[in-house]
């Protein structure tokens, strides 16, 4: 076929043609690659929202109402002597406030949307023999990591992907942190420190059946500023650390008591991870839009900023020319979001991410 003049499809070419021919908007085109890359059902649902055109239709509704308002304002600017329908300043202010409120709601959904779309990296850390590898095995429901009573068994970082209530989590079991002289274990500790630095989130595992020691305290210092859940393992054994002491040491962090050996406390741990990352339940429903793309969030922020400026101009009693300028700028931002005014560079950058064809 190539000898007859055919050529291989470019990345995203089929979706791009659908966009260029007006069959879909740019947000729907982006949703195709999000759907392909989705790691959980929650990620699929967010992509399907966009593919169904939920974001597009919401934005078009806002744009149409803004265009109507702008047309009336510009008519007053261009033909001040003509008998034209009066602009209700209070009505215009209330409508702009409503648009800003709606955009704030969409922008507010971004952090949760990003987590469901992109996932997070989570390092399981703690000193040797606190049960990190056992916890990994329980969470992924298979014997992925070797578990022994010998300290320092885990020498390298072991990674697995799992879903925690729809959130894609790249889970990393790390070497136990302690003062070591063995060169191989030392390399494992070095890699662990790198993973702690890079991780979005940490599961800090403590052996509740042993007193805290200097190794624990060193680790506490390393994760002081990290988002984390404190996991107190081995609750099937007599406790040696009081809950009051742990709460005083970690006043802002969730503390969950589990037994990896007995597989107890896993539901509480999953709930704590979810709420630490998202702080609230996320509703997936036809009337609850979730924004998960940073390009969309940035465009909405720009439109909101322009409409906020228009509102301030109205409240200051400024000339309609200034109000119209800000509304036009807001419309430009919304137009770029759906692809009506997006530059060729932006469009090419989006479709370059696609697989061949698609």
Question: Can I get a quick summary?
Answer:
The chain is of the alpha/beta class and 358 residues long.
Q: Give the distance, in angstroms, between the N- and C-terminal Cα atoms.
A: 19 Å
Strand content: 5-15%
What is the residue-averaged pLDDT? Answer: 85
CATH architecture of the largest domain: Up-down Bundle
Tell me the series of helices and strands, N- to C-terminal. Answer: HHHHHHEHEEHEHEHEHHHH
Number of helical elements: 14
Tell me the structural class.
alpha/beta
Tell me the count of domains: 2
Low-confidence region ranges: 145-155
CATH superfamily of the largest domain: tRNA modification GTPase MnmE domain 2
How would you portray this structure in words?
This protein has about 350 residues and is of the alpha/beta class. The protein has 2 domains: about 10-110 and about 285-350, Four Helix Bundle (Hemerythrin (Met), subunit A), CATH 1.20.120.430; about 120-280, P-loop containing nucleotide triphosphate hydrolases (Rossmann fold, 3-Layer(aba) Sandwich). The chain is built from 14 helices and 6 strands. Helix 10 links the parallel strand 5 and strand 6 (about 255). Helix 2 packs antiparallel against helix 3 (about 40-50), helix 3 (about 40-50) crosses helix 6 (about 110-120) and helix 12 packs antiparallel against helix 13. It is elongated, with a radius of gyration of 27 Å.
